[in-house]
Design a protein that fits this description.
This protein has 116 residues and is mainly alpha-helical. It has 6 helices and 2 strands.
Length: 116
Amino acid sequence: MKGAIFDLDGLLVDTEKTYRDGWLWGFQQFDIHIPKEIVDAWGGKNWKQSFDILVKAAGSPEKVQEVRAKREEYFYQQLTSGAIHLKPYAKEILADLKERNMKLGIATTTVTKRAT
């Protein structure tokens, strides 16, 4: 093996709960009721895969954009406060592979700004 590619969200960084809580907080801001279990099912999906469900719940693509902006606000509050952490052993595994001179890469469906 010469290298490894890791997924960022949910594998290296523990973000799934933060994304879910951000959606739920965003929905609350607009009095939109979507059960936590439905939002949990979006884990690992990209924005486009959940868009139709969001439009149906929110009523319009424009409202979805407003809710998404609130979710982003929540996410960045959590990120800057230090509430988002690496998954257990992520740092150690990456360090071990680096010591072995392996090429490492990150794959993600998230936006570049957030991934950075």
